[in-house]
Amino acid sequence: MPTYAAPPAEKALANHQLLHQFYGPVPPAPRRSPMRELVSTILSHRTTHADEELAYDRMLAEFGDWAGVEAAPVAALAHAIRTTRWPDTQAPRIQDVLRRIRAETGGAYALDFLADWPTERAMQWLMDMPGIGLKTASLVLLFNFRKPVLPVDAHVHRVAQRVGFLGAKVSVEKAHAALLALLTPALDAEGLFNFHKHNYWHGQQICFFLKPNCPRCPLKGFCNYYTEQFGPATPEALAATPAHWDEAAWGKLPH
Questions:
Q1: Would you state the pLDDT for residue 44?
Q2: How many structural domains does the chain have?
Q3: Residue 255 predicted with pLDDT over 80
């Protein structure tokens, strides 16, 4: 285990190893199709998962398929996705994204061609579309095509800053490149996928924005936030830390 003053790269890799043990390895299987991943992530901005899913389901129930969504009146599409935070902005963006995909593929609504593209080209092509930022592009490329990129959301960002391998002033946007530089070449796409999932869960389940559950945290032995709040972890505190996530006691982890 590294010390509290260890270099960022050492802390980042120790974070990966300990959370890998704590939550267990996650097979890098896509959670949904590339098109659904892309469009759902657009819908998810500042929106709960339940409302995002409801908007997606209503959209396809109303218009049938992607061609129907693209051809729909913008106001009608906005109404169908009204459970999202900004439906009036997201509706035309989704239609623009669908038009660009159809133009790239010669008529199909599919992203399979990205599998054969270099990572940098695929990332830039996705980010050239309206409403697609680093996080969305990284999610699609890592989850669906196993490209060596790292999505950083608020949970991953918070854990990295509290543990101390990401600077306090580094934004979420800049964290994508900063964390990737620390983790590669030590981690391949599968390792990056697990790093993302584990830190996402950790921020969601233990390292809360308010009142984090530090006694349960396996990172307390080198976490800057822990030592600032409680002092260096004692042997007794480390020994009392659970070795694994207890699904029966604490609940099932989300996908």
A1: 87
A2: 2
A3: no
Q: Answer whether residue 49 shows pLDDT above 90.
A: no
> 182 lies in which domain range?
8-27+151-246
pLDDT tens, residue by residue, 99-132: 999 999 999 999 999 999 999 999 999 999 988 9
CB 99 within 8 A of CB 71: no
Domain annotation covers residue 21: yes
Distance CA 85, CA 66 (A): 21
49: helix, coil or strand? Answer: helix
CB 119 within 8 A of CB 149: yes
Q: Is residue 252 part of a domain?
A: no
R_g of the chain, CA atoms, integer Å? 20
Residues 138 and 225 in one domain: no
Alpha-carbon distance 205 to 251, whole Å?
10
Q: What is the DSSP letter of 252?
A: P
Residue that is written with structure tokens 């921020």 in the block: 203
Say if CB 2 and CB 224 are below 8 A apart: no
- Please, what sign has the CA dihedral across residues 46, 165, 233, 20? positive
* Same domain? 121 vs 173: no
Q: With respect to residue 255, please indicate whether it lies within any of the assigned structural domains.
A: no
pLDDT at 12 over 90: yes
Q: Which two tokens stand for residue 86?
A: 């900004």
User: For residue 158, what is the domain's CATH number?
Assistant: 1.10.1670.10
Residue 70 in this model has a pLDDT that exceeds 80: yes
Strands (E), 136-201: none
